[in-house]
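Attaching the record inline, Q. Sequence:
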Amino acid sequence: MGKCTFVHLAKPLRGRGARIDGGVGSTVLQSANALLHQGIDDAGRSCVVRERDVVFAEIMTGLSVDALYRTIEGPLPSRPDGRGDLVDLGIAPGQCSWSLWRTDAGGQVTVHHTDTVDFGTVVAGAVELVLDDGVHALATGDCVVMTGVDHAWRAGADGCVLSTISIGTPPRE
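Structure, as predicted:
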């Protein structure tokens, strides 16, 4: 597993009035040490809103699980309002795509949002996830669930490869 994902645990991260229901508008970030929910605050800005320790529960001898993300409604709702560009990944509501994204050393992806829920794992290198509340470093083994909120990416000195499963959500009306 990766190191503490996105933030140093000594720094408290709380969004004012943020949604922490685990649905669209919040994101789960996971590491061996902490589970962080990213969502939107009262002003509609993307931010980290809650953290907790990862706790594995043994479900059978030698196999433990911690449910990192679970939707609370179905089908998936539309993403929250965004200020960045809408990037159309061509994934219709309910459809699924599994992709490997490679960003060259120092490469950047500008602020954007998508009509998808994205489950990502850094499989090589490092990347910075840029939210309205700041920059959060990710390294190999770190995971993120993005729920259509505004965000940007900056690859580390050696670039980054991200494995992402995306599920289409209804477009914002």
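The chain has no helices and twelve strands. The longest strand covers residues 151-168.

More tomorrow.
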